[in-house]
């Protein structure tokens, strides 16, 4: 009976009820959209970072991460490939990596030689999209792709020949010359000044390391399950291998993102304060308007406790209705921002693009965000709903009816 009476009482003054619900709905929409954008920015940043080179997960011989030399390599057998393959692993990219001297004429510069499967590498890092001149290579060619900065320093262009000199597997001399089929550009200066890509078989022959790789990079279907997938892959391998996530391989970037996340938490706290004051202002207005009504009810015999229960019921109903409405409004808004993200313009956009990042501000559609943010706003609204109770407990009915 109390809930039925409360519901009817709410719609006795439709304007006041709608304004209160609207303030809560707006708060829910604001909280969900901002949190979705925050998560989207971080997820997009991670995607950009791992698509540069590392991938989300890598498999090495134990100790390779600390001492990246050819001697810490391993044979990639069919049985090992089967153990690495998981339902959540989309692509397995074998690589062999080593340092060498790149030379042409009288000019020499150090570089990192990366032997990889061209098609699989493109699936992981979109290497083909970074091509600025020439054509992409395939696994059966005896050619090279070189980074733009390295090509500029060595005065090389497409169809020129690059000579590579270094130390191969188990101290063998590594020497080879390769036609440059394409030039790729990386936003990260360290990569752009020193990368040379060779087909995997060509690089293995150059380094006298047949069937040997230094790492296997993995593309996964759901970055949210990164740690679970890592544990799943590691559980199927012997102790001689190490399975590492991008966070473990690049701790500096992980720490930087944690620092940025802390800054976002501060802004989120400010947002909740703004939301709280907005809802409180609406509740304050509603309470002031109903002072005469409260005074009259107390004067004709309604106990303050019963009136308080009715106000609690009103607060609960308004808060729930406002929260549900906010969630319903948020769904199409977040979906739209996910499919059509906000694009940066001007200098900021150019800075992002120069580093190979997408100049976008995307949103993430995550059910947990909707529930958590709606719950937080609901709690804020319920806590603010205590104010009318406090006001009624101190109310003098005679003074209230005079006003």
TrEMBL record:
Domain of life, per UniProt, equals Bacteria
Tell me yes or no: is Transferase among this UniProt entry's keywords: no
Choose any GO biological process term that the UniProt entry carries and state it. lipoprotein localization to outer membrane
Q: How does it sit in the membrane?
A: Multi-pass membrane protein
Chain ranges of the MacB-like periplasmic core domain:
17-233
What Gene Ontology cellular component terms go with this record? plasma membrane protein complex
Alphabetically list the UniProt keywords: Cell membrane, Membrane, Transmembrane, Transmembrane helix
Can you tell me where the transmembrane regions are? 264-286, 311-337, 370-393
Q: Residue limits of the ABC3 transporter permease C-terminal domain?
A: 269-397
- Cellular compartment(s): Cell membrane
Principal subcellular localization: membrane
What is the similarity comment for this entry? Belongs to the ABC-4 integral membrane protein family. LolC/E subfamily.
PANTHER family named among the record's database cross-references:
LIPOPROTEIN-RELEASING SYSTEM TRANSMEMBRANE PROTEIN LOLE (PTHR30489)
Q: What name has this protein been given in UniProt?
A: ABC transporter permease
In its UniProt entry, the species of origin is given as Panacibacter ginsenosidivorans
């Amino acid at each position: 009976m109390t809930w039925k009476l409360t519901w009817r009482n709410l719609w006795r003054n439709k304007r006041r009820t709608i304004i209160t619900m609207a303030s809560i709905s707006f708060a829910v929409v604001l909280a969900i959209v901002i949190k979705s954008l925050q998560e989207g920015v971080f997820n997009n940043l991670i995607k950009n970072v791992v698509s540069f080179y590392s991938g989300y997960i890598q498999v090495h011989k134990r100790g390779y991460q600390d001492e990246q030399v050819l001697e810490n390599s391993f044979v990639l057998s069919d049985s090992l490939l089967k153990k690495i393959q998981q339902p959540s692993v989309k692509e397995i990219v074998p690589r062999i990596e080593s340092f060498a001297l790149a030379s042409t004429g009288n000019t020499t510069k150090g570089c990192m030689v990366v032997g990889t499967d061209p098609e699989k590498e493109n699936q992981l890092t979109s290497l083909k999209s970074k091509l600025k001149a020439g054509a992409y290579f395939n696994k059966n060619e005896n050619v090279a792709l070189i980074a733009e900065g390295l090509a500029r320093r060595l005065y090389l262009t497409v169809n020129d020949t690059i000579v590579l000199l270094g130390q191969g597997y188990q101290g063998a001399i590594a020497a080879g010359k390769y036609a440059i089929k394409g030039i790729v550009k990386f936003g990260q200066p360290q990569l752009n000044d020193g990368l040379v890509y060779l087909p995997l078989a060509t690089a293995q022959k150059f380094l006298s390391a047949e069937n040997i790789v230094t790492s296997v990079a993995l593309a996964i279907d759901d970055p949210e399950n990164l740690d679970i997938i890592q544990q799943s892959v590691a559980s199927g391998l012997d102790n001689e291998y190490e399975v590492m996530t991008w966070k473990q391989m690049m701790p500096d970037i992980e720490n930087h993102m944690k620092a940025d996340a802390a800054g976002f938490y501060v802004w989120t706290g400010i947002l909740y304060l703004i939301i709280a004051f907005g809802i409180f202002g609406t509740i304050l207005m509603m309470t002031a308007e109903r002072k005469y009504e409260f005074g009259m009810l107390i004067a004709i015999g309604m106990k303050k406790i019963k009136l308080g229960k009715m106000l609690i019921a009103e607060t609960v109903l308004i808060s729930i209705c406002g929260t549900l409405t906010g969630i319903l409004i948020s769904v199409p808004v977040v979906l739209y921002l996910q499919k059509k993200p906000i694009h940066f313009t001007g200098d900021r956009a150019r800075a992002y693009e120069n580093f190979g990042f997408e100049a976008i501000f995307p949103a993430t559609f995550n059910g947990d965000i909707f529930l958590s943010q709606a719950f937080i706003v609901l709690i804020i609204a319920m806590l603010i709903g205590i104010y009318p109770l406090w006001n009624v407990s101190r109310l003098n009915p005679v003074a209230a009816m005079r006003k």
